[in-house]
Here is the input.
Amino acid sequence: MKALTARGERTRQKLLESAEQIFAELGYHDASIVKITEAAGVGQGTFYLYFSGKKEVFEEVVLDLNSRVRHAMTEAAEQGTTRAERELLGFGAFFRFTADHPALYRIIRQAEFVSPETLVVHYERLMRPYAAGLEQAMEAGEVAQGDAEVLAWSLMGIGELCGMRWILWNGDNGMPEAVFDELARIIVRTLGARDIDP
Here is the structure.
């Protein structure tokens, strides 16, 4: 795709936001380009300037959500001074993002059937830098030695399932404080970190 003008980028982003809303509310199979363009306030012809069809815009929504959640987690984690602090700040950011964007779960779950290859990309983009950061923390002696990739996948599983249980299913505005405190203890123990008392 050729470079977009500022106006074109705004229109494309509006279509992505509308697609996120429609896919989350109706599901992939009941969503349509007509409904997406109506929600975005643009004509159907405009849609095809940016996307070839429904599957492509769905895949772009998955990747856009992925980029935003990674940015939120990284930005929060960077405020920590130790790996354990960064870990808990990143988890907190993930749970806040989940509460603010429940479509994340709904759309990622649909990706398993609509575009399995995009689902793999989503998780790989989360895991790769995560494992690299854990590897660095192991080398620095901040967390216990082990397989950084296995640790990254395990921690991602904790975050995803706990977010589903206490935010998505409960319709809560965020992770309950008592649950987060217990998770913090589990996470720090899993890391083998001894430099923070959650």
Summary: The longest helix spans residues 54-77. Residues 104 and 138 are 30 Å apart (CA to CA). The mean pLDDT is 93.
